């Protein structure tokens, strides 16, 4: 009897049972970019105009970024139901329908399963959708579902109880042991055993130790940490609190990119709530444990995600990596023992300690335990966040979870592991995502960005893009990374361009540069100071390994099969379509087009520099790309 | 604790806590380094010292990686050599190709490694960063295009000098080293492996003056110069070239040659008198020395509260300059326009000092041009003078004689030693029994010495390197009162380690230079500044007594608070 009453109150607290309708709107960064702000305005307007008693809650992203803005509606006694792509003009008809008990079926994603309520007829359950069915959500379990601004809801769902259990029942050694047993490895890219790292720091004798949560997620194509913080900040903070206790740190820094405005304010708010509830500060809930969380805005440099550079940055110095050893766990922030963990790593911690290391250990492969969150972007039908058990194949993620490639095109490559990761060719799609398998295939787990590219992508251009990024973002400290990436980028640039007035000498030099690409890449990998430098040549090496023919086409045939490298395009004029209007002939800067007025024109290939002006001016679509 | 490691197939001993580099060096195995600096924490930027360690995927930097018992190291395997060579080639691909026009031609570490690694072909082509040279400092010239971003200048400025005038700006290949402000000590020049940091030069003006028959050119050379000049001519470090140097200077065309050591004696006497005065009045103690212009500039910028405690004596260079323009020139009937006063110094901050407002009279600087040791050597070579073949000569009257106490000013601690000798005489009327003070002759950055003279129990402190000064100043601010005199030199080792001295890639010549100075003092007859006969004559004819009105006008100066950005 007692239990039922408690669980009933809890159900109300976590909005499982409602007395008035609730409208949830996906207002993570992805939602806002898709127009959630306007949608929210329209919803508020609708409620005011119709004088309704409805609460509106802004939630994070549930992972279906391409369906944003997502609007969920929960009517009293009815299951919560999700609708996709609700732009502001659609709000009125949607709400009219739902409040009248009708479902616009073309807009619906699915409904939440809930025993307390009646399900909607003809609406499939969310968990049955292929997107969710194959996922195993631990870290992002609450994202998009709970109110990120409410500590009550998090607690009602069992939050912070694990933290209390830890500080009351376990010694720090015991927690380190548990985490070690669980097999959790760093999710930021390195893959070092988290429990081991904690033990090293825990065994250091020092008057002060620090925990740093690395939320400097600056890889292009990675947004796992951001979505997690925006959707469920308290689960991260609980992980941080436990980790700090486990290593004996009383100060925990959270280093967030300055560009993550929303994540920053959500964390700010969540930390204040923790303080109000006595969950951090001096002598947490009378346990004798002190905990202080400090938010630090990072400047957003790519290199500041490297742990030693990040430490320098918190110290107020220039973010440049230092040589290791000494490792931060022995001598880190302000020369004190410091553990630097990624957001996702820490968000796994409450689960491990709540359910015991064994539960976690059962998920995944022999050496890679648990799940991994991937930020899926590019040319898949669904883009967004997916969390899968380690060992899931890339093919499953792309074709079963994400629904395959857009417009039925061919997949060309999957770039995994961020800018210094590698691209996986189609014939390697059955590769399992776990640390060892990826490493063996010459790729890295990285932080978890997964960019899917279709046949319209040029691999040389892709490698060039990443080398340019790495060169611009290099801290500049060590020679191979600073100068080497620049030279590689220049060589790739020369491959993708058609130099005007090139002398024979320059052609020779260009070819010499190409010949040296691999050797140079090897030296950069061998001698760079930090992990980012050592992996910097990866995009080039993997593209060269798997897509060598495309490089050769660019070099020898001067041709880009994807048509991305504009200067390599070869134009011709379709004589049937050409009316002889001389528009292209007048525009051509090199007089490569010949022909009489009102007669079909021709392009002299040798003179053509591929600028594309004729292509642009032709009104009759007579200029074509070979 | 020692243990065995395997290097290139041979077993060598390594010590717990060593870096790989120090273990290799102790066993005589050379690994090239570009950014490493002895006594400073490793940086690991240049990747020249990488070695192959069995079982490790990438190459390890020897300068920063601790040596471990299991290690099997290859220092010159093909993989390692290829990596080193590639890195040098990468540096060269973004370096101006103007070795022939570069000041460091022939004494450049980048050039040497390119030669050692047999770089014979330009493998990497591409864009280069274009920079303008930065002439904003009075004494330094910065050429970012030649900078290889090793960070040595930044580290010496931060860790040893505690100034932090330089730091990296920008990132990626746009990164460069830049200053916010500086104290002109020039240590950054000494550690720069390339020609990115050099002293400012005005050779044209000097050449014109030397060849103009209407202008009398006068040169003075600093006490430390005679023991360091030899290195510029490939001779043993610490060889004393005093009289040969005087002769060479005359051959260069200087009409009069003086030795700043004479002014050093003068400084010692004046400063001793000043200290005695303050001791009697028990005010403005401890007194700080004033002969290092870099220290003065630092104090003016960062420590304005102690400016009144700094001795008002000008530096020896400026004392000599003032004597030359007002006393010597006046005696000869020369006008300001018809003399050109040059000084040869181990220092680049002197270039700044000479421009100070307080160091001019009637709007004309007392010293017109300052040459560093390196510039002087270049001038001697330019004029085809074989310094080993010249006949020894003496300096000109009336400042001919000097004491070996003045010579001691070349080394950190030497000024204090000389000062104690003279002060002892002033207080007790007797010469000190043991003029050599061993405590002040070590190569440490901080030294202290206590002595009883008459009624006074005196404490003397000697510091070199601004970093050490800060430490001492903090102690004094916290109430330490047993120190009465503090000698400060900005450069490690004192003037023998000055920013204008010969650049040596090994940085190990300081001891030899200092020893040469001590040897001079140990064997000479006149070991007390106040016994210098020329000096006694000067007091008789011109100054009267120390701190007289004439001497205050001529030889003393004042200091002012300086905004840091200036």
Rg over alpha carbons of chain A: 28 Å
Residue stretches of chain A low in confidence (pLDDT < 50, at least 5 long) are 1-6
- The chain-level mean pLDDT of chain B equals 88
Radius of gyration of chain B: 25 Å
Task: State the assembly state of the protein chains.
Answer: heterodimer
The class by helix and strand makeup of chain A works out as alpha/beta
Helix fraction of chain B by DSSP (H/I, runs of at least 4): 25-40%
Overall strand count of chain B: 19
Task: Give the termini separation of chain A.
Answer: 77 Å
Instruction: Give the overall shape of chain A, derived from the CA principal axes.
Output: globular
- Please report the number of helical segments of chain A: 25
Distance between the termini of chain B: 51 Å
Please, what is the average pLDDT of chain A? 90
Strand content range of chain A: 5-15%
Number of strands of chain A: 18
For the largest beta sheet of chain A, what order do the strands appear in spatially?
2-1-3-4-5
Q: Can you walk me through this structure?
A:
The complex is a heterodimer of chains A (626) and B (566). Chain A is 40% helix and 14% strand. With 626 residues, chain A is of the alpha/beta class. By secondary structure, chain B is α/β, with parallel strands linked by helices. Chain B is built from 19 helices and 19 strands. Chain B has helices spanning 20-26, 78-93, 109-116, 152-160, 187-191, 203-210, 225-232, 242-252, 260-281, 293-302, 316-332, 349-353, 373-382, 404-407, 414-428, 466-477, 510-523, 533-543, 549-555; strands at 2-7, 10-15, 50-53, 60-61, 72-74, 140-142, 166-169, 176-179, 197-199, 216-221, 256-259, 287-288, 339-345, 360-361, 364-365, 369-372, 446-453, 456-464, 485-489. The termini of chain B are far apart. The chains are: A alpha/beta (626), B alpha/beta (566). Chains A and B meet through helix 18, helix 19 and helix 20 of A and helix 2 of B.
Write the layout of secondary structure elements.
The complex is a heterodimer of chains A (626) and B (566).
Chain A: H1 2-13, E1 22-26, H2 29-34, H3 36-49, E2 55-59, E3 71-74, E4 81-83, H4 91-99, E5 108-111, H5 130-133, H6 151-156, H7 161-169, H8 172-182, H9 194-203, E6 210-215, H10 224-231, H11 233-247, E7 251-257, H12 261-276, E8 292-298, H13 307-314, E9 338-342, H14 343-355, H15 357-362, E10 371-378, E11 384-389, H16 394-401, E12 411-416, E13 422-424, H17 435-440, E14 449-454, H18 459-473, H19 479-496, H20 504-527, H21 531-534, H22 538-546, H23 548-557, E15 571-573, H24 583-587, E16 593-594, E17 602-603, H25 613-617, E18 623-625
Parallel strand pairs in A: 1-2, 6-7, 6-9, 7-8, 10-14
Antiparallel strand pairs in A: 1-3, 3-4, 4-5, 10-11, 12-13, 12-14, 15-18, 16-17
Helix pairs in contact in A: 7-11, 7-14, 8-9, 8-11, 10-12, 11-14, 18-19, 19-20
Chain B: E1 2-7, E2 10-15, H1 20-26, E3 50-53, E4 60-61, E5 72-74, H2 78-93, H3 109-116, E6 140-142, H4 152-160, E7 166-169, E8 176-179, H5 187-191, E9 197-199, H6 203-210, E10 216-221, H7 225-232, H8 242-252, E11 256-259, H9 260-281, E12 287-288, H10 293-302, H11 316-332, E13 339-345, H12 349-353, E14 360-361, E15 364-365, E16 369-372, H13 373-382, H14 404-407, H15 414-428, E17 446-453, E18 456-464, H16 466-477, E19 485-489, H17 510-523, H18 533-543, H19 549-555
Parallel strand pairs in B: 1-5, 10-11, 10-13, 12-19, 13-16, 18-19
Antiparallel strand pairs in B: 1-2, 3-4, 3-5, 6-9, 7-8, 14-15, 17-18
Helix pairs in contact in B: 7-13, 9-11, 9-15
